[in-house]
Amino acid sequence: MADAVTDLNEAKGGRWLVAGLVVLAAILGLVLARLSPPAPVAESAPPSEFSGMRAQAVLARLVGGGEPHPVGSAANAATRERVLAELRRSGYAPEVAVGFGCRRGNSCAEVRNVIAHLPGTRPGKAVLLAAHYDSVNAGPGASDDLTGTAAILEIARALKAGPPPRRPVVFLLDEGEEGGLLGAEAFARTPAIREIGAAINLDARGTSGPALMFQTQSSNAGWIPLFARAVPRPVSSSLFVTVYQRLPNDTDFTVFDREGVPGYNFAFIGNAERYHTPLDNLANASPATLQHMGESAFALARALADGELPAAGRGGEVFFDVLSSFVVRWREAWSVPLALLALLLVGAAAARIWRRRAASAGGTFAAFLGFLGGVAAAAASAWLFGLVLRPFGGLALAWPAEPRPVIVALWALGAAAALAPLSSLARSARPAGIWAGVWLGWALFGLALAWALPGASFLFVVPALAAGIAGLIGSGDRPAWSALLPMAVAAILWLPIALLLFRCLGTPGALIVATVVGLAATSLAPLLAAARRRSAVLWAALAIALVAAVLVPATMRPSAGAPRHVSAFYHWDADSSAGRWIVSGDLPPLPPQMAGFAHFEIGTPFPWSLKQAQGAVAPAPALPLPAPTLEVLADEKLPAGRRVRLRLASPRGAPTVTLQVPAWAGARGGSMAGVELPKDREGKLPQRGDWTTIQCLATPPGGVELDLELTATGPVAGYLVDRSPGLPPAGRALAAARPPDAMSDGDAIAVSRKVQF
Ligand SMILES: [Zn+2]
Q1: Who surrounds ion ligand 1 at CB < 5 A?
Q2: pTM of the model
Q3: How many whole angstroms from 266 Cα to the centroid of ligand 1?
Q4: Cα-Cα-Cα-Cα dihedral of 93, 98, 102, 107, to 10°?
Q5: Residue 205 alpha carbon to ligand 1 centre in Å
Q6: Spans of the chain, pLDDT less than 50
Q7: How far is the CA of 206 from the centre of ligand 1 (A)?
Q8: Which tens digits make up the pLDDT trace of 230-253?
Q9: Closest Cα partner for 549 from 495, 498, 507?
């Protein structure tokens, strides 16, 4: 009797391969459609609902004139007033909490957090909705994170318009996230944090795309079912949570998580080339993204505020959305049993294949090795791709404005490379042997991951389960179902990941993208093996890769859509009474348009710059500016070293004041405004090159006190620098000469002097 797998051997003529490719294309279309965020809900929606159009109007008011508004700047004070006005308009009495925050890297600031309360009908822990209203120096931050801020302001309005929630809701629009989560740190040091039972944080690393729920606390067992029930269009998986845990990136949620507050962290990552640039503007902010982020957070806030909070500490969940429609999940403890079941089912199907002599165990083993070789070949193909492109400029941009050529090239290369070894084994191992070898490979990968990284295991375990079931349910008149079904399941799970992967990693992740696509492509190998003209398919994939690769170098040059970083400074050296123009960033070369402004020479911009940091330096007219001041308030001898208390200030009112302490002085600890500076693993303040850089990004008018513990017993000589945004009038022509393919990370005036303490 024939069955589904053995009939693969008879599925001649490529009919089933064509069917497989059609199914694949259909799933890709579906995935692309489901990954694009929903249309924004009109302003005429009932007041108790979230409307993306209403939130978009809030966003336009928040962005105002579109100035960058970093922590402590006058522009951010104006942004804060707009946030307060929106809350008052919705009937809230918001407060401004002045605090001080410090983070790793010796970076501190005085911050002003906007906080509003919606009382609950019963006492209990509150639900926190958090976003940051400050931006980086480079751009207006319309998406990062005024989109999150606008979403929360619309949620605050909608919650107040609806029935009162059972538990209190706290809205935190904090300042200084970009300076190192400083607003969240300041909030975490107030008693208010103890009243919070759940947090929803909204942030951005791009300007478009779906709002991904990418982080929870690690014990999220009760929290994922609530997410699955509440959120209408979930885009999330335990893979995001697992991968993000291992990345060095941070958002305010890091602070809430550390404080033991459970919850959900959302961000969107489309058009990452605009992130932290002037292109993060209102025109590029996506109302659909705002709708998706807002409606997801609103639904969760309602569910959390109206119900019981899930119990904490019940272990983790493995979960994933299916076409952004619903969430499949199981407890982490079930991962290994499920993976074993998948291996058992695929193994039983393989044993039946051998028994019926549709393939031999030896052929199956060869196919398994071909599967492993294919995955390695996919990785090697990306490495080779980078090597071949190097003479043409290589993959110079992490996020090109036009990423399609590099994505198509990596996908086609990865797929062709992974399938080539398996295709070459088709005759000897026979299609049924390829099926058994490949799906045993998937089941074994699933088992290894279920043990080591359960959050990622579903990617292998679910398709392998589908393969095992389809392989055992034989049906003589439906050959190749056993190959088609698991391939379709794999495509539904892997295509969204593969699509998001490039947005997440950019070209530095080329090898990972090609490997992941190659791995996913092996699910097509049994159908390919059954087709007579399989080499033609591989050659076609290679041809597509080649055409795309030819287009790549042109996309890797800085352009108006993906500019290089070129910032201009006026530096007044108060010691030598000399002014200098400094252009730094992605140099050399200095843009020719800027080179004519003054007599520039390439060199190290500041005495405390890292040695590899290159800049262009030119003499500038003298603009005597008052230098920052350092006052020694106390100097105490310790058994090993000294403790000094200093007051740092900028008489000209520059927001940022930086003290450069030479590394030999051994700054092993300290605090600013009474807030401890976090130490590194070696138990001292983190260093950059030969210097320990300690800065206050938003300095109070009277200055800020810094306590330092030094191993040095004698006097220490360093530099004190203050920095204010913008250039003096004499430098405006320099800024204006910046070409369209370059952007500023924040032009500034810096005044420095030598100090001794
Ligand atoms: Zn942000």
Answers
A1: 144-145, 203
A2: 0.92
A3: 11
A4: 110
A5: 7
A6: 1-2, 475-479
A7: 9
A8: 999 999 999 999 988 888 788 889
A9: 507
